[in-house]
Amino acid sequence: MQRATSITGVWFRTDLRITDHGPLLEAARLEQARGGAVTCVYCLDPRDAGPTEQLGLARRGPFRSRFLLESLADLRSALRAIGGDLVVRRGLPEQVLPELAREEGWAALHLHTLVGTEEEAVEEAVRAALPEACAFRTWWDRTLVDPEELPFSVREVPEVFTKFRRKVERGGSYPEPLPAPTSLASGPAAASDPGDLPTPEELGCADLVDDERAVLRFRGGATAAAERIDAYVWSGDRLKTYKKTRNGMVGADYSSKLSPWLALGCVSARQVQAEVERYERERVRNDSTYWLTFELLWRDYFQLITAKHGAALFRPSGLQGIQRPWQRDAQAFEAWCEGRTGIPLVDANMRELRLSGFLSNRGRQIVASFLTKNLGIDWRWGAEWFEACLVDHDVASNWGNWNYAAGVGNDARGFRYFDIATQASKYDRRGRHARLWCPELAPVPDRLVHAPWDLTRAQQDELGFHLGRDWPRPLVDLDASVAANRERWETAGAR
Ligand SMILES: Cc1cc2nc3c(=O)[nH]c(=O)nc-3n(C[C@H](O)[C@H](O)[C@H](O)COP(=O)(O)OP(=O)(O)OC[C@H]3O[C@@H](n4cnc5c(N)ncnc54)[C@H](O)[C@@H]3O)c2cc1C
């Protein structure tokens, strides 16, 4: 086989798409001009599936593993359709990439840079191990806004979201997505041995069972992302009511459900924003269409805050360094994880998370508040459980939101919590979500579905539903547990 004269490597990470992909587009343009080739690589890094720090959980649970696998298959097809390929290698990127660079004599390695201490460390290790002749070129794609265009540096990102958003919105517009390259010549690694895609067995998701109650069967890849945008925005015409429905908990369409595709970069925030703007031009522009952009800015915010604070994101005292007397009650934590605290609103959401890999934003906020403010348990345990379960895990969004929920992150203002009874009456008044995930509650009338402990003995007999037999007695009294934790925080001198 004849070797191309010049080769550029492109390292795919959480950017599994070919459209709006700066590193790929630039590699294609450069190598086309000089008759060279592009080697696209994905490394299956064993550390991505390794144990979490506090609890030793497998970081990437089966839902995310399957989503990854499907995304890789879709990316490989997309690259093959334009004459390229996806080279898949198992191992540490800091070994795999320099080895390929040496073998093929790469002129450069292109990649999207990421936030997160481990992500940054891997990047640095790859850069350091590359042969001298191989340039290291990075791009940024994790946000809707271009950090270079912001009126402040990353070190000056405001600690309060609203301040950040107002400053960003003064800019007025967001960058357009880039086109996909139209053709690509493959490097020799791809031609000789592109390597097998991982199997479900290898990624530990062969036995995954889909629960029919799940909001969606999330299918990985840019093709499925485009289908979801079409179903939600265009054929479903849901965007115009997003602001009214976004706090829902049941069904596919109360919110966009784009988070898994955004997390793995099957679609970029700029592409989603471009669809929002097209919808505003062609259908309607209202507070709902604006609100999707608003939520994408929350996502941006956590990315930039993570870039600003680095390792502080993961310490118990969080971004703001606020000391709290966190408990480490393994039994209570297990009850929370498994959805058997006896509090229907919490248990239904926790079962949904474990059995489907997804949870509504409302549900995430409720269960995070319950863990940290009713049980007083170390928020990092909750963040690790979410990391292991979620199909859409993203280090900045997950750990940033957990910081926020625990009261140690941005905008920390004393002991704030979600009152479970109020949340239940606002967001699941008739117990539809509770009964969906906790069918044991079926006999309980709507009025008491979120407080079955208030059933008298006679009512329990009449319904054939007994506390302690058909439903766990509540792990804590909701009001008393909040009061006790508040007092412990105040005694410990918390602000
Ligand atoms: C404790 C906790 C942990 C979370 N962990 C993650 C996570 O690991 N990955 C993740 O993508 N989101 C996370 N979120 C944010 C949010 O819950 C999800 O992004 C959202 O529920 C996904 O559903 P959707 O795509 O239908 O969202 P939509 O309501 O349709 O919003 C559109 C997009 O905006 C972004 N977005 C919306 N809300 C937030 C937010 N609060 N923070 C950051 N981005 C947001 C997401 O990319 C989302 O896809 C977490 C929230 C909490 C409270």
What does this structure look like?
The protein has 495 residues and is mainly α. It has three domains: 135 residues, HUPs (Rossmann fold, 3-Layer(aba) Sandwich), CATH 3.40.50.620; 88 residues, Serine Threonine Protein Phosphatase 5, Tetratricopeptide repeat (Alpha Horseshoe), CATH 1.25.40.80; 162 residues, DNA Cyclobutane Dipyrimidine Photolyase, subunit A, domain 3 (Orthogonal Bundle). It has 20 helices and five strands. It has a five-stranded parallel beta sheet with strand order 3-2-1-4-5. Helix 3 runs parallel beside helix 4 and helix 11 packs across helix 16. The longest helix is centred in the middle third of the chain and has 23 residues. It is globular, with a radius of gyration of 24 Å. The termini are far apart. The model has no long low-confidence stretch (mean pLDDT 96). Bound molecules: flavin-adenine dinucleotide. Flavin-adenine dinucleotide binds next to helix 9, helix 11, helix 14 and helix 16.
